[in-house]
Design a protein that fits this description.
The protein is of the alpha/beta class. It has helices spanning 17-32, 51-64, 79-91, 102-114, 130-138, 191-201, 214-227, 257-262, 267-275, 291-297, 312-324, 328-341, 352-362, 371-376, 388-395, 399-412, 417-431, 435-447, 455-464, 468-479, and strands spanning 4-7, 36-41, 70-74, 95-98, 144-147, 154-159, 163-168, 176-180, 188-189, 206-210, 233-237, 240-241, 308-309. It binds glutamic acid. Glutamic acid binds next to loops.
């Protein structure tokens, strides 16, 4: 048997972290078994579905490296299939048209509430005579199509994550609506129905999705049986929780993959982190792996039942590991758009070799790509703002003379790593000051700060774009 799994997002919003994590688990499982990963867009909700969300979903999956083998299939292009399937259930006597109005349903719910009963449809239109149906039609009532669910049915499946699951027909709220009225009397499919028809048609062997779908699974199994189809295996993955243990939501600041991208996470880092949202490798100390490496080790035995807490610190850590081990040219490719977005311009000698040197300099200090904006601001602005500490350092006795000494020496030397060291030595001697003072004054003067990446390398970069001398002159003003 070839494993065939799918991710079936609804394009009613951007690619959500929960959906993306489900996609990751599907992908890992498919790749582990040499199977197929299928993409299906569940766009039957015409009011809430938008093409830009579909775009965002496809783009997000591609960005994360979750390549699919078939699709994207769009449910709105498959309506004929669902209609035929509704007809099959009619023919088998397992579905019927229900003309109950929303007012009648509301009254039913109220009565059930008053009796302290759970709300459910009472199957009142299950056995309408043709005359009754004709009368309702004549009244101009609209209808839905319901699938018969017997209360005494027991539904059992062996969930690959949660073990044996047992549901009763009576838990499912009465005969379920599978389609809404359509002009031809066959109906537009609802989620639970379309999903089963598609999963059968696409020969899905394993349905891997979030645990919020468990109640749907019970209903869907009854539909598979009604069609006489083989029931797939099910794996319900744990929810993603925030620090308070509640479902991660928009209130937690970010939920879509494009948000994570905007925040400066790398695709590889985020994908790696998502594998750990509910799963751990057999060697649980191993936390850094590519999707391909995780796929080799992936199994549902190591997927937790309990919700997976979203851990920003861990995501940051994993992300930094990817940034720190990335080849310079690749990191440069990722950082250029980040800098462009911040309005930085690559003029005045800021060519590719210079940019790569800058990336080499700051790369090891980055946690998120966007950190590069603040960290490299001093290389993209003509003048620099001196921090309070830096100003204080510049006002320190000896700083001004030191900086003037450096400026004078710069006139005579072409700046290289060696000559920079030479200049520092020379100024120490001439001014009779400690090397530490020269270094601090230089750092404060060149970068406007007392902390930052390697000083000599920073100086060389500023020198290459002709900014070191003006900076030092600016610093001398502050110093005196
Ligand atoms: N369209 C459903 C969702 O986005 C798919 C659920 C499923 O995988 O069956 O939640």
């Amino acid at each position: 048997m070839t494993v065939r799994v799918r991710i079936a997002p609804s394009p009613t919003g951007n690619l959500h972290i929960g959906t993306a994590r489900t996609a990751v688990f599907n992908w890992l499982f498919a790749r582990h078994h040499g199977g197929e990963f299928i993409l299906r867009i569940e766009d039957t909700d015409s009011e809430r579905s938008r093409p830009e969300y579909t775009e965002n979903i496809l783009e997000g999956l591609r960005w994360l490296g979750l390549n699919w083998d078939e699709g994207p299939f769009f449910q709105t292009k498959r309506l004929e299939l669902y209609k035929q399937a509704v007809q099959t259930l009619f023919d088998k006597g397992l579905a019927y048209r229900c003309y109950t109005t929303s007012e009648e349903l509301e009254a039913l719910r109220e009565a059930q509430k008053a009796r302290n009963e759970a709300p459910r449809y009472d199957n009142r239109h299950r056995n309408l005579t043709p005359e009754q149906e004709a009368a309702y039609k004549a009244e101009g009532r609209s209808f839905v199509i319901r699938f018969k669910i017997e209360d005494e049915r027991e539904i059992v499946w062996n969930d690959l994550v949660r073990g044996k699951m047992v549901w009763r027909g009576s838990d499912l709220g009465g005969d379920m609506v599978i389609a809404r009225a359509a002009a031809d009397g066959v109906g537009l499919p609802l989620y639970n129905f379309a999903v089963v028809v598609d999963d059968m048609d696409m020969e899905i062997t394993h349905v891997i999705r979030g645990e919020d779908h468990i109640a749907n699974t019970a209903k869907q199994i009854l539909l598979y049986e009604a069609f006489g189809a083989k029931v797939p295996e099910f794996a319900h993955t744990p929810l993603i929780l925030n620090q308070e243990g509640r479902k991660l939501s928009k209130r937690d600041g970010v939920t879509s993959i494009s948000d994570f991208k905007r925040m400066g996470f790398t695709a590889e880092g985020l994908a790696n982190y998502m594998t750990l949202l509910g799963w751990s490798a057999p060697d649980s100390t191993q936390e850094i792996f590519t999707l391909e490496e995780a796929a080799k080790q992936f199994s549902f035995e190591r997927v937790n039942k309990a919700g997976a807490k979203f851990d920003w610190a861990k995501l940051d850590w994993i992300n930094s590991q990817y940034i720190h081990s990335m080849p310079v040219d690749k990191l440069t490719d990722l950082l250029i758009p980040v800098w462009e977005e911040a309005g930085y311009q690559f003029t005045g000698g800021r060519d590719r070799p210079w940019i790569e040197q800058l990336v080499t300099l700051i790369g090891p200090s980055l946690t998120r790509l966007v950190d590069a904006i603040a960290m490299s601001k001093l290389f993209f602005t003509e003048t620099v703002e001196f921090s309070d500490e830096a100003s204080a350092q510049l006002k320190h006795e000896g700083s001004s003379a030191t900086l003037k000494g450096v400026i004078a020496a710069l006139e005579k030397h072409q700046l290289t790593e060696a000559s920079a060291q030479e200049i520092i030595k020379q100024v120490v001697k001439e001014q009779n000051v400690k090397k530490g003072l020269v270094m601090k004054a230089l750092r404060a003067g060149l970068t406007g700060d007392l902390h930052g990446p390697d000083l000599i390398q920073s100086w060389l970069l500023l020198n290459q774009i002709g900014l070191d001398k003006p900076r030092l002159l600016q610093a001398v003003e502050v110093a005196s």
